[in-house]
Amino acid sequence: RTLNMWGLLPPLDAPHHVRKHEWSEFREGVTLGGDRSKGTLVDVGLSQNVLVEQIVEQGKRVTVAMGTNRDLTPACVRKVVPQSSPSEEMGSYWGYKVRYASNLSGVINDSPYKEGYDHIIGTSEHGETIISSELILPSFRHLLIAFGGLAGLEESIEEDPNLNGKGANDVFPCYLNTCPNQGSRTIRTEEALLISLQYFQDPIRRAGMAS
């Protein structure tokens, strides 16, 4: 019932949403039930289910290495690989992950990366205004861009006991207004997200070229 209107949503058409008639070296799939004596059947969105060598419980989302052999019969056994494999091996975008944090300091400090974030940027209407073409970012491996809610990142900082007494410029070395001259008093987070991603596109590309 919760998905009965999903067809009205605009398609992402992301690289990991591979079409049925296309072949890809990796595909996302869902594990199926049945005999597991030879592995696990996975529905990867093709005309036939594929067999992977690992034993995985039913109903799990997995990334399957399909390779170049287009044989879909059980004779061609494939492998479940880490979700990061397509990005690492092909260099293409392969979806996103969601992480829960109880406060802003948790977002920053509990990074999923062992070495943490190289560069942290906060976005706010109270931040510094720099034209996108003039913004210089340092080279980085992992970049964090933070967006606040209706009351902004300032409220998130005030309500975080781990950031007591700190201001936005103490928490974020780079604190930017990515939507100057916005006109309306507030911008919804989902609107600011799209505007800011466009704003950061060229600076991030330049930082990657410089690294």
From TrEMBL:
InterPro entries hit by this protein: Alpha/beta_knot_MTases, NA-bd_OB-fold, Put_MeTrfase-C9orf114-like, tRNA_m1G_MTases_N
Domain of life: Eukaryota
CDD domains: HsC9orf114-like
SUPFAM superfamilies assigned: alpha/beta knot (SSF75217), Nucleic acid-binding proteins (SSF50249)
Family to which the UniProt record says this protein belongs: Belongs to the class IV-like SAM-binding methyltransferase superfamily.
Protein name per its UniProtKB record: Uncharacterized protein
